[in-house]
Amino acid sequence: MLDNFEENQKQNEEYRKTAQRYHQGENTCDECGGSVNVSVYMDDYPNRDDEWLYCPHCGRKAYIRTSGIAKAEKG
C-alpha cells in the first residue's frame, strides 16, 4: 500500500511542475487568459491534498490545495 502512495506522490510532484495553481475565487488561465471561477465545498477537514482541475476554456491542467471538493467554472 505504501508503494502506491509513494508512486502517487511522485506523480503529483511531476504534474505540479507543469500545472498552474488555482486559488479559491477568481483566477486567470496562464495559457488562454480566460477567467476561471473556482469554488471549494466541504473544506473543513485537515490534511490538504491536490485537487486537479482543468481550465473550462482551453482545458489546461491546474490544481488547488484543499481538503474539500473543488469546481472550476467559466468566470
Automatic annotation (TrEMBL):
The name this protein goes by in its record: Uncharacterized protein
Superkingdom of origin organism: Bacteria
